[in-house]
Amino acid sequence: MRNVVIIGSGCAGNTAAIYTARANLKPLVVGGHEAGGQLALTTLVENFPGFPEGINGPDLVENMKLQAQNFGAEYLHAAVTDSDFSKRPFRLKIDDEWMETCTVIIASGASARWLGLPSEQKLIGHGVSSCATCDGFFYRDKNIMVAGGGDSAMEEANFLTRFGKQVTLVHRRDQFRASKIMLDRARRNPKIRFLTNTVVDDVFDASEKLVTGARLRNVVSGEAWDEPVDGFFVAIGHIPNTSVFKGQIDTDPEGYILSKGGARTNIPGVFHAGDVQDRMYRQAITASGAGCMAAIEAERFLEAEGH
Ligand code: NAP
Asked: Out of 3.60.21.10, 3.50.50.60, 3.40.50.300, 3.40.50.620, which CATH number does the structure's domain 114-234 have?
């Protein structure tokens, strides 16, 4: 039986591991299918405080993991496949085996939704990104493309005009899911060019490990063409990783955990940290802060229970 099991090994999970390990709770971190979380998919991170020259995303999460391990955190290269929070101790199925724990910190994140093109997957971190705040800076005076038609796409496109020469927003329909205010703001921005009824069929050039262009197709006329582009941002939504807690942990309709204040979920002893609850900020530093909060709450919960 564990004191605390942390689900997820991104910034939130690793920070929760550092804090709970230093509190001598010997945490177990279940790394998940996307070990290291979204930072493991990025290159240079320039906005995490403490690194004046920036730090590579994979190095940053790996350092956090090593830091947690130095204090006794244990990591499992496995995934939680089922959960039972109906009684205490809580039960988690890790790969094929059930395990008992007094507290749980859910830091399983939200995965960016991708278009699903093979070339797109190969170019993630090499010109393909799902985070303008993280990577926009690298595209000063460059041509940038953004895929999507919701608020995220409008927000990212607007943000990217601070850097890029031109931002082309590609959307598969001619109606937008984005709110009027966000859409109007993007429409008023002279640096944003809209391509509607248009889908992306390919991103070049996976063989060079560098984005050089995209193949587009108008779904009404059927016309296909290639456009040169230096950065390709996918903003078609995120999927919170909460399916294994369905029916037990309260979530909003899209699956994001509903916070009951601080790091608390609807089940006392089960805490949330990071993007699995946060659809607003989604930053490495905010996820780390949330991991710290969840760890402190888990520690206090255990103390109050006499552990
Ligand atoms: P969203 O509202 O679900 O929009 C996703 C967009 O991506 C839609 O336009 C959708 O097209 C498109 N899309 C989905 N799958 C696609 C695919 N396979 N290929 C091409 N296009 C695809 O997601 P979101 O923009 O991330 O927003 C999520 C939530 O956060 C919303 O509630 C939003 O209001 C909120 N948000 C708010 C702000 C803000 O207020 N500052 C900023 C960001 C997000 P279709 O329309 O054709 O389905």
From this structure: 3.50.50.60
